[in-house]
Design brief:
Length: 423
């Protein structure tokens, strides 16, 4: 469904944390969940196809791993499976050997250990001399691989029993609960004639088209997402991106070749410096408050203190906001006690400049290198034939009477040196 193109937010609207932008294209929430829910691909395909048998198998595969982790398997895999299907009756008709834990082990006439699994559903296991059920010994490596593979999916098992007639409701709940409340995306159009080539941003949970590809980071904290975001939005990263981009499309295969700093670069002090500034730049409205909640929940006492100091500085400079969420936002139980940061363009420009200077140092640049990246004419004179951020420079000179970004970044460099931030 296509709506009218939404207008750009005014400066006054940007300062209103309850202001939202309506999407131009409307997509059903379930379609968003199906694309972005953190569930196994096989289960996702089964849900899309509406194949009940495969959905049931996929759910059992996912839930049984969580059951083993939370309940343990001290009495053996078979006993664990029996206890599992007592709670989750929808899996009772499945043979436990269908979980794929036995590999190519040969069949047995009778179980030889508590971990052996039958090739029939537990209600159909037979011990007769002519029609005995085959049993299989699990492969320890497959069991370990199975548990590790399923461990990346973070969810809570349903509190009550799940039978066949409630699978649909459980699937809907699983899709919603495992879909992030926020996304991290970037502008796919990124030619060198724009102010910035690499433009990354946090987004509320909503459908996006192919012109805003999404990035999903794995095996890192929520706070580390801010390190990634500050990195890829830095002017140094933008400069490198401009050298790599041959056309106007910033595609995944190009992004994967760009020099993003690894999480190991950030010690406690570096992470606190970056997170405090990046979170003020990113979290200025209630529709992105879930990200602030997640960062707060994922942070230790020191990082929380840094975020709170940053918020207090913002309040002192701008007046801040009261904690007054709109009706459509329901705070989680473990929420961040701070409301969104208040938007202030001058303050944001200074914070961006500090991060630009900081990342220049993290990338190993000295002051002369940084001056060249900002404007080669500053190093080699006005007759130098090369250019870096011509469009940004021209627009800022027209608006501010100076190349403001260059001045603020170099001032930030000097200020951080004086404060010992580069030691």
């Amino acid at each position: 469904m296509l709506s009218e193109l939404p207008p750009r937010l005014s400066e006054q609207q940007k300062q209103d944390p309850k202001a939202t932008v309506l999407p131009r294209y409307w997509v059903e929430p379930r379609d968003v969940y199906l694309r972005c829910a953190a569930i196994p691909d096989g289960l996702r395909k089964a849900i899309r196809a509406g194949d009940f048998e495969l959905i049931r198998l996929g759910l059992a595969h996912l839930f049984f791993a969580q059951w083993l982790v939370t309940s343990g398997r001290g009495s053996g895999l078979y006993r664990s499976w029996c206890e599992f299907v007592e709670r989750f009756g929808f899996a009772r008709a499945l043979a436990p050997s269908q979980m794929g834990l036995c590999g190519n082990n040969p069949p047995l006439l009778r179980p030889e250990s508590p971990d052996d699994l039958p090739a029939e559903a537990i209600d159909k296991v037979s011990t007769g001399s002519r029609d005995a059920t085959a049993w299989y010994s699990p492969d320890p490596q497959l069991v370990d691989s199975y548990l590790k593979a399923m461990a990346i999916y973070k969810f809570n098992l349903p509190a009550g029993p799940v039978e066949n007639d409630s699978i649909s409701a459980v699937v809907d709940q699983l899709l919603q609960k495992t879909t992030p409340d926020w996304f991290l995306g970037f502008r796919e159009i990124g030619n060198n004639n724009l102010e910035r080539t690499a433009t990354f941003s946090l987004l509320p949970r909503a459908a996006v088209g192919h012109k805003i590809p999404l990035t999903f980071l794995t095996n890192c904290s929520v706070a580390a997402h801010l390190g990634f975001l500050a990195n890829v939005d830095s002017i140094i990263f933008d400069y490198v991106t401009r050298q790599k981009l041959g056309g106007v499309s910033l595609s995944y295969f190009i992004l994967k070749q760009l020099p993003v700093l690894p999480p190991s670069v950030y010690g406690r002090e570096q992470l606190a410096f970056v997170v405090a500034r990046a979170i003020e730049l990113a979290c200025t409205a209630w529709d992105i408050q879930p990200f602030l909640d997640d960062v707060w929940r994922d942070s230790d006492a020191d990082l929380r203190a840094a975020i709170e100091r940053q918020w207090c500085e913002n309040r002192e400079a701008t007046g801040g906001h009261a904690y007054d969420p709109p009706e459509w936002y329901t705070p989680p139980e473990e929420r961040c006690p701070l409301p969104p940061f208040k938007w202030n363009d001058d303050r944001r420009a200074r914070l961006r400049a500090e991060l630009d200077a900081y990342y220049a140092k993290l990338y190993g640049l000295d002051e002369r290198d940084l001056r060249y990246v900002l404007d080669p004419a500053d190093v080699y004179g006005p007759d130098f034939p090369g250019e870096t951020f011509r469009v940004l420079k021209e627009k800022e000179i027209a608006r501010y009477g100076e190349f403001r970004t260059r001045r603020l970044v170099l001032e930030g460099w000097e200020r951080l040196h004086a404060q010992g931030a580069f030691v």
